[in-house]
Amino acid sequence: MTTPDTTVRFDDAWPIALAVARATAAQGYDTVLVRDILGRFSLALDDRVPKVSSESADRWRTELAERLGRYAAANTVLLASDLFAPEAVFESPHLIDLPGQEVSQGHGRIRVLDNGVVGEDWAPVTTPRTEDSGVGTTRIALYGFKGGVGRSTATFMLGKHLADQGSCVLVLDLDLESPGSGPLLLREEDTPQYGLVDHLVEFALGNADGLDLVATASGISVAGNGELWVAPARGRGSGTAPYTYVDKLNRVYGSVPGTPSLTFADRLEQAVTACEAAVAARSRRPDVILLDSRAGIHDIAAVTISRLCDLALLFGSDNSQTWNGYRDLFTAWQASGQAEAIRDKVKMVASMVPDTHRAEYLSTFRDRSWACFSILYDDLPADDSTGFNPSPEDLSAPHSPVPILFTLDLVGLDGVSSPGWSEQRFVQAAYDEFLTTATRLILEGA
What we know:
By secondary structure, the protein is α/β, with parallel strands linked by helices. It is built from 13 helices and 13 strands. The chain folds into two domains: 10-116, no CATH class; 122-445, Rossmann fold, CATH 3.40.50. The protein has an eight-stranded mixed sheet with strand order 8-9-7-10-6-11-12-13, sandwiched between helices. A five-stranded mixed sheet has the order 3-2-1-5-4, with helices on one face. β2 (41-46), α2 and β3 form a beta-alpha-beta unit. α1 runs antiparallel to α2 (54-68), α6 (196-203) packs across α8 and α10 (320-335) packs parallel to α12 (358-373).
């Protein structure tokens, strides 16, 4: 006979720590639930008003240590009155309000300070409408939880389509580990001397001025006065020394010595802004920036979707990997109180839709997408229509898929060495609805 496993695991620790946090808040203390990089918890209590008795603090320390086991931090209860700089905790810009809490008279507020490495920037969700980003420039992220869903090809098609409509378009290849849209849009000899990875490395040392980061797309005919620019992940190098891409890549995610407040997210945003300024200096400010993000749960994808874009096109095929991955991301956004913000800036794309049985495939895809996106929708009673909970059939809803048809002719295609491939009839047919819908969404958001 086996005995129950009473060991506290990662998932068990959260409700235990939260229960104690609610108890401290009920005593009138503003409480910050702090989780460190290993998942261990401590409670920071603002005891400046009212004061915490030593007996109460010791009791909560003991309770957390006993109940959390290895998931208790070394000091389980931190008091503002004991901290040298309490504002670093209680006024941190990374604090997140506990979703669903209602602060009543005499109760304190509960917030969360969650420290991680990968994916730390999935929350909070913001938009890039700042003085630096340029009013009138719309940033669109193209993201797939899994690779191999045609994201980079779709970036090419959308960039060219928008340029043909007269827009000045800048494509940034943010898939640093596996560059996609850069090689698709630029011949090697036309690649600028430096890439995004160079800006990330040089900016950390205050050495990013004067980098050659952008070039016009190679061998692509753009109609009218439209323009298509590219900022690749890697440059071609100077030719005087080896271009050590891997060595640079190994250094882009670390913190900057001496300036810990300069995060990877800040550096990536500065790189995007620098590329935008480079196009503006050589021609005009881009109307649209397409951010070809890397796949998976990764800091680049986190920053791109949560912070850098106005609209994120989420690519996926109808399989368990797609839905399990997006369900994990949506659950994280919902748990951190970001559901309303993120659902306003995402749209599902059904990539590689089979031409045969297309209607049946899309119907099944839509239903599974709705079930997944419902995590982000309001949980409403049957007679309540005040919140946001669109039906599965609502074509304007975030879950409603925009299709891209699958064609074997595109598999393994080298776009740079096959000029005019995007003009072929089967390619236009495959991307027609995607290009029409994405263009409408971009124009509506501009």
